[in-house]
Write a structure and sequence with these properties.
The complex is a heterodimer of chains A (83) and B (398). With 83 residues, chain A is mostly helical. Chain A has a single domain, classed as ACP-like (Non-ribosomal Peptide Synthetase Peptidyl Carrier Protein, Chain A), CATH 1.10.1200.10. Chain A is built from four helices and no strands. In chain A, 24% of the residues are buried. Chain B is an alpha+beta fold and 398 residues long. Chain B folds into two domains: 100 residues, RNA polymerase II/Efflux pump adaptor protein, barrel-sandwich hybrid domain (OB fold (Dihydrolipoamide Acetyltransferase, E2P), Beta Barrel); 201 residues, 2-Layer Sandwich (Chloramphenicol Acetyltransferase), CATH 3.30.559. In chain B, 31% of the residues lie in helices and 25% in strands. In chain B, the strands form five sheets. In chain B, strands 9, 12, 15, 17, 18, 19 and 20 form a seven-stranded mixed β-sheet that branches. Chain B has a five-stranded mixed β-sheet with strand order 7-2-4-5-16. Chain B has a four-stranded antiparallel β-sheet with strand order 1-8-6-3, with no helix packed on it. In chain B, strand 13 and strand 14 form a beta hairpin. The longest helix of chain B has 19 residues. Chain B is elongated. The chains are: A mainly alpha (83), B alpha+beta (398). Chains A and B meet through helix 3 of A and helix 5 and helix 7 of B.
């Protein structure tokens, strides 16, 4: 899976969690929590959805790596072995 | 025959609009089945039925706004004759009169008008044929016009005057949108709470290192879908602590305390776009943390998707609110009437803490209680917070 495909998946999942958000305006280096008003339940749903879509296990200790859109894509690309 | 009535889904609801029936006359319904969708000022609600039987007749149609307590359908209960005394299907709804008139009045008036319009009015009109035709052409209801002719006969001039008067009136104000109505009902409930309930406020700071370590360790073993969030520990600890101070779990009704035998924690959930709801996690005290987590997750998703059930809004016996994720260190909630207490949790902060004679860095949580002084005193409230703290020190027993 390419980084663009990962990014597309992440944005689609975020769209389910925050359907009112205009994701085209998302700043990739700003915290998702601040931009989308995400709480811990949203974060858990995000991780579960990524697990289902990308078949990746994300331990709780790695949650900080999902802080921004960019860090999220980088982290997931690393998990799937593709830089 | 049982009556299915417009339920009161919280003290701040005076009327609801039927959106759709989920069943048809002749259908068999089981207790707990969802029979209708109702729009309230807070959310669209799936309304459950509380008897088992066959739907005999619908009395109202989708689109109608109805005061709380309005009979909406008849249900023939299993093993009972079609005729006879009709107990309400939604007995939990208290009389609307229990709600202050300023809350009822704005919302109830249109509903009352709708009912009045639906009832046939038998009144012989004294009106000339030309005036009748003009009324039809101009869209004027002659029944609303005062006649100035002989013996009160309605004349063409009367109709024309009525049409001019209507044209001179400002256009009807647009109905407030959902967000505005949501703020209005929250305003009404909170203003009522502050006006009627003598709140007292307590606060304590607790070391939650054991609870967090236990949670992190347990989540390592759990699948992604079974992981627990920290808030579930708080909910269970609160539910169990209420067993020790049961007067905090219940209501103030008709001038006296009415403790509840069941513990249904109402969880304050912020809605996207603003506002909040506090639906119940039923029997919070009796469920394992895993069960509670599944139900909590489902409840949050449904609250934000606008598909809560009626019992979830009418049943909370105590409310928990948390603003920790917004960076708030302590929150003192406003009691949601007719409940008598609310607990608040803030952000977990890493701070110096004295433990076993040493200054150490520990994750600390500030827990608060707002209590109704008519029902409990600060001493009992303090025992409740102490129980919450004690329970969180042994998370494996939750």
């Amino acid at each position: 899976m390419t980084n663009d495909e990962i990014r597309g998946t992440v944005l689609r999942v975020l769209g389910q969690i925050a359907p009112e958000a205009d994701l085209s305006q998302l700043n990739p280096t700003r915290r998702l929590r601040d931009q989308l008003d995400i709480d811990s339940m949203d974060l858990l749903n995000f991780v579960i959805a990524l697990h289902k879509e990308l078949h990746v296990e994300i331990p709780e200790s790695d949650y900080p790596k999902l802080a921004t859109l960019q860090s999220c894509v980088d982290y997931l690309a690393g998990l799937s072995g593709r830089p | 025959m049982a009556e299915f009535r417009m339920p009161q889904l919280g003290a701040d609801m005076s009327a609801g609009k039927l959106l759709r029936w989920r069943k048809q006359p002749g259908d068999l319904v089981q207790r707990g089945d969802i029979i209708a969708d109702v729009e309230t000022d807070k959310a669209d609600i799936e309304v459950e039925v509380f008897v088992t039987g066959v739907i005999e007749k619908f009395l109202v149609q989708p689109g109608e706004k109805l005061p709380v307590g309005t009979v909406m359908a008849f249900i023939r209960e299993e093993g009972k004759p079609a005729a006879g005394e009709a107990p309400p299907v939604f007995p939990a709804a208290p009389a609307p009169a229990a709600v202050p008139s300023e809350i009822i009045a704005p919302a109830a008036a249109p509903a009352a008008r709708a009912i009045a319009a639906a009832a046939p009015i038998e009144r012989r009109l004294h009106i000339s044929p030309v005036a009748r035709k003009a009324a039809a052409d101009l869209g004027i209801d002659p029944a609303t016009v005062q006649g100035s002719g002989p013996a009160g006969r309605i004349t063409l001039e009367d109709i024309q005057r009525a049409a001019q008067a209507r044209a001179a009136q400002p256009p009807p104000e647009a109905a407030p949108d959902r967000q505005t109505r949501l703020r209005q009902v929250i305003a009404a409930a909170m203003a009522r709470s502050k006006r009627e309930i003598p709140h007292y406020y307590l606060s304590t700071t607790m070391d939650v290192s054991r609870a967090l370590a236990w949670l992190a360790q347990g989540n390592l073993q759990r699948s992604v879908e079974d992981r627990l969030v920290y808030g579930v520990l708080l909910l269970k600890a609160v539910a169990l602590a209420l067993h020790e101070v049961p007067e905090l779990n219940g209501f103030w009704r008709e001038g006296r305390a009415a403790p509840s035998a069941d513990v249904h924690i109402g969880v304050a959930i912020s809605l996207r776009g603003g506002g909040l709801v506090a639906p119940a996690l039923h029997h919070t005290d009796r469920q394992s943390l895993g069960e509670l987590m599944k139900k909590f997750r489902d409840l949050v998703q449904r609250a934000r998707a606008g598909s809560l059930r009626s019992s979830e809004l009418s049943d909370p016996t105590f409310t928990v609110t948390s603003l920790g994720e917004q960076g708030v260190e302590s929150v003192f909630g406003i009691i949601y009437p007719p409940q008598v207490a609310i607990a608040g949790f803030g952000k977990i902060v890493e701070r110096p803490w004295s433990a076993e004679g040493q200054i150490v860095s520990r994750p600390l949580l500030t827990a608060t209680l707002s209590g109704d002084h008519r029902v409990s005193d600060g001493h009992r409230g303090g025992l409740f917070l102490a129980a919450v703290e004690r329970l969180l020190q042994e998370p494996e027993k939750l």
